[in-house]
Design brief:
CATH superfamily: SGNH hydrolase
Strand content: 5-15%
CATH topology: Rossmann fold
Number of strands: 6
Strand order of the largest sheet: 5-4-3-1-2-6
CATH class: Alpha Beta
Organism: Streptomyces venezuelae
Structural class: alpha/beta
Protein name: GDSL family lipase
Helix content: 40-55%
Largest sheet: 6 strands, mixed
Pfam family, one: Lipase_GDSL_2
Distance between the termini: 27 Å
Oligomer: single chain
Order of helices and strands: EHHEHEHHEHEHHE
């Protein structure tokens, strides 16, 4: 990895995390860390090109089938791949199959780009995190092994305590806020060897604990608006990304 390197193109591959949920814009669309990173890279390089193939709800097998081939064909300087967490968070999962899909994705993407970037994704502190932590850590072990084998960089978001702070997570408890995405963009920026603008690992100021009644109200609202619909989609085999196109399917100059 070059220090203070120059990059002329960037392709982002993945699911809702890379699509940008829940960093909402006034028009109802999402921005997210990949868009923020692309804008910063474009400011350094005239004619910089960017594609974001990520679609919410995608499993790693779908990412391989629908995004990896297109991303490899673009021959970008930088490709980011984040996937497998949707698989790990399902009630039942074959982690061996997840490993196989990740291996295929990395084997196809690494030779196609100047620098492949993988991630150890963040997780919101709480009981859901504790339940799925063993699977997440198994997934991240695979990520580290593949990175070492193929010369990819790994952004360790999981190892940053601040990104587990519930205040950096949206009300759905699955996606980062705008501030969370801002910190991820800075983390990837620094991992690419570019000069830091801030300490993305810096802890938030101490907050005032919520009372029991407030917490219960928030839990009920979360269950009604987010948890029950999510369970419904799992039971019926549907996904929030069904029929949804990628936000930037072509590698074009960033405008």
């Amino acid at each position: 990895m070059e220090m203070n390197a120059s990059y002329t193109s960037f392709v982002a591959v993945g699911d809702s995390f890379t699509e940008g949920m829940s960093d909402g814009l006034p028009d109802g669309s999402y921005r997210g860390w990949a868009d923020l990173l692309a804008a910063r890279l474009a400011a350094r390089e005239p004619g910089f090109r960017y594609a974001n193939l990520a679609v919410r709800g995608k499993l790693i097998g779908q990412i391989v089938e629908e995004q990896v081939g297109a991303a490899a064909a673009m021959r970008a300087d930088v490709v980011t791949l984040v996937g497998g967490l949707n698989d790990a968070l399902r009630p039942k999962v074959d982690m061996g199959r997840v490993r196989g899909h990740l291996e295929e994705a990395v084997e196809r993407l690494a030779p196609s780009c100047r620098q492949l970037v993988l991630m150890r994704s963040p997780g919101r502190n709480g009981p859901v995190m504790e339940r799925f932590r063993p699977r997440m850590e198994e997934l991240f072990t695979v990520v580290e092994e593949l990175a070492a084998r193929h010369g990819a960089l790994v952004v360790d978001l999981y190892g940053a305590p601040v990104l587990g702070d519930p205040r950096l997570w949206d009300v759905d408890r699955l996606h980062l806020t705008g501030e969370g995405h801002h910190r991820v963009a800075e983390a990837v920026w620094q991992t690419l060897g570019l000069p830091p603008a801030e300490d993305w690992r810096a802890e938030l100021p101490p907050g005032r604990p919520s009372g029991w009644a407030v917490r219960r109200t928030e839990d009920l609202r979360f269950a009604r608006r987010h948890l029950l619909p999510w369970i419904g989609r799992r039971l019926t085999g549907r996904s929030s990304g069904d029929g949804r196109p990628a936000k930037r399917p072509d590698l074009l100059p960033l405008s």
